[in-house]
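Narrative of activities, Objective 1.

The group set out to show that a structural description can be obtained from nothing but a protein's sequence at a throughput compatible with the screening campaign. Below is one input-output pair from the validation batch, recorded exactly as produced.
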Amino acid sequence: MAMEFLKLVCRINGLLHKKNFQYSQELEGNSEYMNFGEKMWWGYKYFFNPVEKAERGKNIEKYFREQNLKFTLPEGFYETSKLCFTAGGDILASHHIRTDNTSKLWNEAEDFLFESDICCANLETPVVPSVAASFVPKNILKAPALNNTPEVFDLMYKEGKGINFFSTANNHCLDMGEEGLIETLEFLDKKGCQHVGTASSEQQRDDIPIIEKNGIRIAFLSYTFSINGKSVPQGKSYLTNYIRLNKPDCDISLIEKQIHIAKAQKNADMIIACVHWSLEFEAYPIQNVIDMGHRLVALGIDVIVGNHPHGVQPMEKYAFHDPFSGLQKQGLIIYALGDLISCHEHIPNSRLNNMLRLIISKGKIDGKELTIISDVKIRPMYIYSKMQGDKCIGFRLLNFNKLVEGIDKNNNYMDFDDEEVKELKRLDELMHKLLHIEIM
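Output recorded for this entry:
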């Protein structure tokens, strides 16, 4: 009854503000600081109308439409080695995602995602074996307290042959409390998984992980803009890299410190930062987030892999002067890849996500050593769940481009009905509006 009343209030609020609610708003989106009006707006987006228009008056849509996302080796660059980095989006827990219904989970994704030197994703759920699994509640009046099972985690990790690096700083990292956060880290360590973003000590937080492949040293950082109103225990800020990144002019001294550790102390050739930011259920980042992305790249971060909105957002190539090498470089900002693994009843745009594939090249130019992005590709994926009543009997990722092209050629190989086909075509239009990049 309370949920129906909440939906009604959100609906009425949406109708009263229908013109404004079509567009992104300049708000932080951090649940700890939301006022009543922002909560009602969040509810309207969740139940009725995900936002697909950028902030008014900022020319954001035009800015991304004109992006040139092609990366090539610069003239005079002599390549000595290279590696392949892939990334997926957020991994969440759901009672619909189990070991008995996921036998085909990666069939149309593994050739793109797993055939790489480093494969990264955001683990947006604790994995605490000592506690029962916990999923998104049907009543959103209560904040989710996620906890996934080791068995479902193994579907992602695949004994090191699947996703082999995890970002853990996100708004759900404290869902099981401090004890659950620590147990998750212990679980990952026992599996041999490298990770970044949460830590059991200040020393671990600042021990920036480096992965070296083919003579190229990649440093990984991870930050979250929100922890869902949870309180970090006093004196234990190291538990999660929590910085209010959606706010303009927020203090990013921790990021500066960790970039310096990665470059000056650990001799990283490139820095990749997994950043939990932006606004949920929105197709474009707000200007505050774009500005923050530029600030982070200017500090020396080469690639930002963003997430949190439960949907795809654009990508940006951003030129910067590397403060460590003194050379001009091209950074890549992915504002949101979307949910890699999730199952949301009320968020239609969360069905679409992107997987990222980068080629990173190391070499010399004019006698100076340089490590750069030399190629970028994406593969859009569709999160498919076959339902039988209230039970999911088949959950998998489908190659979205292949799916839409098949339907256009009268090859509806997943047997979607007319409404589902209509929805797929709507998502296809949205994807092409947001992204102008080579698709694999």
